[in-house]
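It is worth pausing here to work through a concrete case rather than discussing structure prediction in the abstract. The textbook approach is simple: state the sequence, then state the predicted structure, then interpret. We follow exactly that order.
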Amino acid sequence: MADVIPFKKPKASDKHRGKTLCKSGFHKWEVVKGNPFDVKQGKMVTRYRCRRCGATRTEAK
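Step two, the predicted structure:
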């Protein structure tokens, strides 16, 4: 038998879950494990990743 495909349209709340806050600049940053060293700057770099959308940012200390 073939797989059954749902023809139901996803709700807007399910489709955009967690994205509206990030688009407005309200990311939920978490520290990514590991201590990368930036050779060009000669500093330790902390990497952050947004829990909701997966965007990344770095911060040199």
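Step three, interpretation. The CA atoms of residues 23 and 34 lie 27 Å apart. The chain has two helices and four strands.
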